[in-house]
Specification:
single chain, about 550 residues, alpha+beta, 3-stranded antiparallel sheet, two-stranded antiparallel ribbon, 16 helices
Length: about 550
């Protein structure tokens, strides 16, 4: 019978597809009452589907794997009420959800299969939401089995004077209060003990990307601290609104919180930006010949031509439509800024600071768990705040020569910078932990695999353990993509922030001759992707000479 579940679900999906097309076609001609009834009917199906999935997850979340005495992989089953280690990672990959959602649903599913078993019925009937069951599960967390059973019986009983169960009739606030009153009777002192643990172990401050250009700052604080803090925020916000009547309440509170947090505090930040010298718009009709590298500030005059092999100097101009002859030489290691001007790059592969004479284009910066910071804000941070900024100037045409390998196990600082700038976050699908807070993992174990960018990837400590767990597979491909396969056979691919093609473009003979003449790095030499749109050279694995955007 269990093997028929997929077929039954296919029929439900087909029914929903028909419902969707019918609604899209006929909904404009229906009245509000009919539309509302249809929305309620679809919601009932969605809730019932949640119940079915939780019933499956209740068992799947208990399944784990371990290595047997003979080296084989053995399947295990956690005790009732417990989630098997790493089971939520398998579920996250299969359902395509975040780690947090997978862990939350796994814990709820296991409890619904254990001490909260009767609560599955109203969800299966479509009478309540999964979020409502999660509330009851959270309120009874750490309660004794007898206390949890008393809460379940109370919320499933009808409201006084009605036939409607409390779990359906009460809103979230009243339902939480009902659970707590039962716990007060059956488990005296539970509030004090729970509060003490929460205040000691669960207080935290976290950030999440908000709407574009913003960040959500979420704080879990002791209640009295939060009360005083909010009062201070509101007071400062009112002062700001008196000074600027057009300032809305929300932005005023955000500015007030920043004022409180930074008042009397000196903050010094260190930002490392991997910046490519981006090619600006070329002159009208200009065509570049193979191996062409310009000098700083170079331009062309109308009607000017150049024979093969001639070296240009700064300040020259060119006519529109001029094509460089094959083999023309240029000084090695030169690069160009967004406006078209060229400047000498870090030919030795060092991270260099840029003076006033070289001003590369600075785009916005995507920071894991923070969000996107516009380019003009980055510039303001550099100019106005006490910030040390290291800018890695990287040549998008030839790649900067970097020290990207070592014979030892521990990656040197240059390799760590390379991987952190390339990956920016943990390489597990759905994980957003910053690369700077991750381990550098050897895809092929050292010493079988070298300590270099091509064999290293950023993995947070948890997913580092997942990678080495029984029945999990992790492969770092030559194009920079990372392939994960879970014990259930679910496959997911992730890409680094910078992506390079697996094969280098064919090199013309004239282009090769130009590199031999100038001494510039040969783009056919193996490379390793670094920051977006940029590659750094590597001496073991070929990743292509020019980086491109990821295939998504």
């Amino acid at each position: 019978m269990f093997d028929k579940i997929e077929g039954l679900c296919d029929k439900v999906v087909s029914g929903m597809q028909v419902t969707t097309m019918t609604a899209a076609t006929l909904a404009p001609s229906q009245d509000v009452a009919m539309l509302t009834a249809a929305a309620v009917a679809v919601e009932r199906v969605r809730r019932s589907a949640d119940a079915a999935q939780l019933a499956i997850l209740a068992e799947l979340a208990r399944r784990g794997f371990e290595t047997g005495p003979d080296g084989s992989t053995l399947e295990t089953r956690a005790p009732a009420g417990e989630v098997a280690e790493l089971a939520s990672d398998t579920i996250a990959l299969a359902l395509g959800c975040s780690d947090h959602d997978a862990r939350t649903r796994s814990r709820l599913a296991v409890r619904l299969g254990d001490d909260l078993d009767p609560l599955i019925r109203p969800l299966m009937d479509g009478a309540v939401t999964e979020r409502t069951l999660r509330l009851v599960a959270d309120e009874t967390q750490d309660a004794s089995r007898d206390a949890a059973a008393a809460v379940v019986a109370h919320v499933l009983a009808p409201m006084r004077g009605t036939d409607v169960p409390r779990i359906e009739a009460l809103d979230r606030h009243d339902l939480a209060q009902a659970c707590r009153r039962v716990l007060d009777r059956t488990d005296p002192g539970w509030r004090e003990s729970r509060a003490e643990v929460n205040r000691r172990e669960r207080t935290d401050v976290r950030t999440y990307p908000g709407p574009l250009g913003t960040t959500e700052l979420v704080a879990c604080l002791p209640s009295e601290t939060a009360h005083v803090l909010m009062a201070g925020v509101c007071e400062i916000a009112r002062e700001r609104q008196r000074e600027d009547p057009d300032l809305r309440v929300g932005p005023a509170r955000a500015l007030a919180l920043a004022d409180l947090a930074l008042r009397g505090v000196e903050v010094s930040t260190h930002v490392t930006l991997g910046l490519a010298l981006v090619r600006g718009p070329s002159e009208a009709g200009e065509a570049e010949g193979p191996g062409d590298v310009k000098t700083a500030g170079e331009m062309r005059t109308a009607g000017e031509t150049r024979p093969a092999g001639e070296t240009r100097t700064a300040g020259e101009t060119r006519p529109a439509g001029e094509t460089r002859p094959a083999g023309e030489t240029r000084p090695a290691g030169e690069t160009r800024t967004a406006g078209g001007a060229r400047a000498v790059s870090a030919a030795e592969g060092r991270l260099i600071d840029v003076g006033a004479t070289v001003e590369p284009w600075v785009g916005g910066v995507e920071i894991p768990r923070i969000g996107w910071v516009p380019g003009f804000v980055v510039q303001q941070v550099v100019e106005r705040l006490d910030s040390r900024v290291t800018r890695a100037l990287l040549d998008p045409e030839t790649g900067t020569v970097l020290e990207t390998s070592t014979t030892g196990y521990v990656p040197p600082p240059s390799v760590r910078r390379l991987v952190e700038l390339r990956d920016t976050r943990c390489r597990m699908w759905g994980c957003d932990r910053p690369a700077v807070a991750c381990d550098l993992d050897h895809a092929t174990a050292w010493p079988g695999g070298p300590t270099c960018g091509a064999n290293l990837s950023a993995l947070c400590r948890h997913h580092h353990r997942v990678k080495h767990a029984p029945a999990w597979s992790y492969v770092l491909h030559a194009d920079g993509s990372a392939e994960w396969v879970s014990p259930a056979g679910t496959q997911r691919l992730t890409w680094p922030t910078a992506y390079a093609p697996a094969e280098a473009p064919a090199q013309a003979p004239a282009e090769a001759a130009s590199h031999e003449t100038t001494g510039a790095p040969d783009p056919s030499t193996p490379t390793q992707p670094t920051t977006s749109g940029v590659v750094a050279r590597h001496d073991t694995v070929d990743h292509g000479a020019v980086a491109t955007a990821p295939p998504f």
